[in-house]
Amino acid sequence: MKIRNLLLKIFFASFALLPLVLLYFFSDFLAFVIRHIIQYRKKIIVANLRKCFPEKNEKEIKKISRKFYRNLSDLIVELIKSQRITPEQFDKRVVFKNQEVLDDLYSEKKSVFALLGHCGNWEWAGNKIALFLKHDGGAIYKPLLDKFFDDYMVKQRQKYKETLMIDYRKVFRTLVALKDKLMTVFVLADQSPARDEMGYFINFFGHQTAFYGGTEKVARALNYAVLYLDVSRVRRGFYEVEIKTITKNAKETKEGFITSEYVRLLENTIRNQPDNWLWSHKRWKKQEGKNQ
């Protein structure tokens, strides 16, 4: 295992030295391998697309699927390249349309939950926000099973700013202990929750779908502001992020409102760029009244 980890470390470090223009040639090849040879989760991807876009014909589904595989490959090479990308390069490649929203909340002494989905390059969005964030940073986090890749991802997420990695099982306890700090806590909230973590069933692409309830409960208990980060792909290797306010005072919202608004905004993001979301996830394995 140590030899494997050393070889991976050397490979990633060497790979990151190459310019992105060359890495995207490799990405095209990788996309072909993943799609046609490995056929990575092909049935799941197509089934998810058909489920969400019943109005689209097979040609349209195939087109979205093909673009998804290229985007996935781009994401992989971009994550490796992150080791060598400078702040100046991130400024050009990831543009926040309205970063003043976070600045204003800091001035108002409000802590924040920043919710986003697995859209575009969500990791680069996190790297870029660290360059201007005035709050202390945190991220709700479920450790990867492979320690090498877990350590690698944590290091990338802390590239420009010390970010507290918060165990997803200890969110409330951790944030209560940090109540005197102004925090912005990032949450990728679109994955399928475990059976004991299902908080709400919400209409998502016409299907009652399970979503985590813990983030909303903590936000309401601690009266955090809640934002949605709308990540879109402008062109290859370039992204734009718009910050959308769900609420400035979570305590004043009705139960379920925050999660419902998040789901609505997420669906709009996906509909605008269908190939930009992580369709390989088994998102509908749990539905209301049954587990799939």
Question: In summary, what is this structure?
Answer:
This protein has 292 residues and is an alpha/beta fold. It has helices at residues 2-15, 20-38, 42-52, 58-81, 87-93, 100-107, 122-132, 147-157, 171-177, 214-222, 257-272, and strands at 94-96, 112-116, 136-141, 163-167, 183-188, 198-204, 207-212, 225-235, 238-247, 286-287, 290-291.
Structure in words:
- The strands form three sheets. This protein has a seven-stranded mixed β-sheet with strand order 1-9-8-2-5-3-4, sandwiched between helices. It has a two-stranded antiparallel ribbon with strand order 6-7.
- Helix 3 packs across helix 4.
- It is 47% helix and 22% strand.
- It has 292 residues and is α/β, with parallel strands linked by helices.
- It contains eleven helices and eleven strands.
- The protein has a single domain, classed as Glycerol-3-phosphate (1)-acyltransferase (3-Layer(aba) Sandwich), CATH 3.40.1130.
